[in-house]
Write a structure and sequence with these properties.
With about 400 residues, the protein is α/β, with parallel strands linked by helices. The chain has helices at about 5-10, 15-25, 45-60, 70-85, 100-110, 125-135, 150-160, 180-195, 255-265, 275-285, 290-310, 335-345, 370-385, and strands at about 35, 95, 115-120, 135-140, 165-170, 195-200, 230-235, 250, 325, 350, 350-355, 365, 390-395, 400. It has two domains: about 5-45 and about 290-400, Aspartate Aminotransferase, domain 1, CATH 3.90.1150.10; about 45-285, 3-Layer(aba) Sandwich (Aspartate Aminotransferase, domain 2). About 40% of the residues lie in helices and about 15% in strands. A seven-stranded mixed sheet has the order 2-8-7-6-5-3-4, sandwiched between helices. Strand 13 (about 390-395) and strand 14 form a beta hairpin. The longest helix has 22 residues, at about 290-310. The mean pLDDT is about 95.
């Protein structure tokens, strides 16, 4: 069998691979704790369930317009007005099967072979692979100070005549860092002046803590949506805990959306009607679910920070948003892939290697689960790694003895 060079070069998703291994262990009855998956544990909002169920009850489930049903697009327009201070036209909005498809459609629409896209490390694992899939080149900018916040001078130094776009994700997956207002203002100004697309991945934008604010990029441009280089991606998966509904959207210029519409028409045709109805229900229903989730994550954040600060040899930067933390475990191993595999095999804890985010030596931990899972998972990790921790531990109903340190 022969396959394309592009397909052969695509890396396996480390998150999905570890989740699959964890699933197999769980099926064997092993008490695995998954700290790797970026998924809230809440039930879907009742408004989303009811609007989706109404479509199912009616039984009239057919194709929809490629760019989304009008009522959902109207809800997205209102959401954009309320949260971004801009009122897009319906032609500025396209609904896709999740924010991931939105991002891929943007990249497929914008990029030619050998065009470059700047990624700010740490970055979401799928960005480089999606860029490679359209035969473009990811250019990684890593903060020289060892932190997680990018600096404009480092970005400007990475720009070349081939630079077509910059992707900004704030609050950031995997670090939880919220980029400063000054930085967002500077990068918007830079991209508008240089004619570089600024792709804002805003999927976590309301999940912020301790007074932090993920400021909208539109605040710092005087250009309208059709003439601006700013492109905004969002969706319902994280803010509403609706990961399985796979609804995301893009707000961009009419010309860009028109081409994305053609791309989507030739691939997925449209997003499922019942899922679009659910997203509409979430956006137009009571919004207390978002604040409830935010408060739950904030409490979980405080718990995991307390546990990690008591972990010998681990350095950690406190997250300001999303529901991830990216501690530095390089004191124990500089090979994050091997470390994540070891923790799954020995401690039955799923983590994600920092290497996949451009941060070798780190592990990404999600605190979207329960407080009990967080505390138990970190306790197991300490047992597996820290020689000063007790030599014995109960994992499930089995007493385990550490014999490798």
């Amino acid at each position: 069998m022969t396959i394309s060079q592009v397909a052969a070069a695509i890396a396996e998703s480390p998150t999905l691979a570890l989740n699959e291994e964890a699933r197999r262990l769980r099926e064997k009855g092993e008490p695995v704790i998954n700290m790797g998956i970026g998924e809230p544990k809440n039930k879907a909002p009742i408004a989303a369930i009811l609007t989706s169920a109404a479509k199912l009850t009616a039984g009239d489930i057919k194709y929809t317009p490629v760019d989304g049903i009008p009522s959902l697009k109207k809800a997205i327009i209102r959401y954009t007005e309320e949260n971004y201070g801009r009122i897009p036209a319906p032609e500025n909005v396209i609904v896709s099967a999740g924010a991931k498809q939105s991002l891929f459609n943007i990249l497929f629409t914008l990029l030619n072979p050998q065009d470059e896209v700047i990624l700010l490390a740490p970055y979401w694992v799928s960005y480089p692979e999606m860029i490679k899939m359209v035969r473009a080149v990811p250019v990684i900018v890593t903060p020289e100070d060892g932190g997680f916040h990018p600096r404009m001078q480092e970005i400007e130094a990475a720009v070349s005549p081939y630079t077509r776009a910059i992707i900004v994700n704030s609050p950031n997956n995997p670090s939880g860092v919220v980029y400063s207002e000054a930085f967002i203002a500077d990068i918007v100004d830079f991209c508008e002046r240089r004619g570089i697309y600024l792709i804002m991945d805003d999927i976590y934008h309301k999940l912020v803590y301790d007074g932090a604010c993920a400021v909208p990029a539109y605040r710092y441009t005087r250009k309208d949506i059709d003439s601006s280089m700013v492109i905004v991606v969002n969706g319902v998966s994280k803010l509403y805990g609706m990961t399985g509904f796979r609804i995301g959207w893009t707000v961009a210029s009419r010309k860009l959306v028109a081409v994305m519409n053609n791309v989507q028409a030739q691939t997925t045709s449209c997003t499922a009607l019942i899922l679009q109805a659910a997203a509409e229900g979430a956006l137009t229903g009571l919004q207390n679910v978002v604040e409830s989730l935010r408060m739950t994550f904030d409490n979980n954040r405080r718990v995991i920070m307390q546990e990690l600060r008591a972990f010998n040899g681990v350095r950690v930067i406190e997250p300001q948003g999303a529901f991830y933390v990216l501690p530095d475990f390089s004191a124990y191993s500089k090979d994050s892939v091997a470390l994540a595999r070891m923790l799954l095999q020995k401690a039955l804890v799923v983590t994600v290697p920092g290497k996949e985010f451009g941060m070798e030596g780190h592990l990404r931990l999600s605190y979207a689960g329960s407080v009990k899972d967080i505390q138990t998972a970190v306790e197991r990790m300490k047992w597996a790694l820290d020689p000063t921790s007790p030599n014995e531990i109960y994992i499930g109903d089995r007493k385990m003895v550490r014999d490798w340190l």
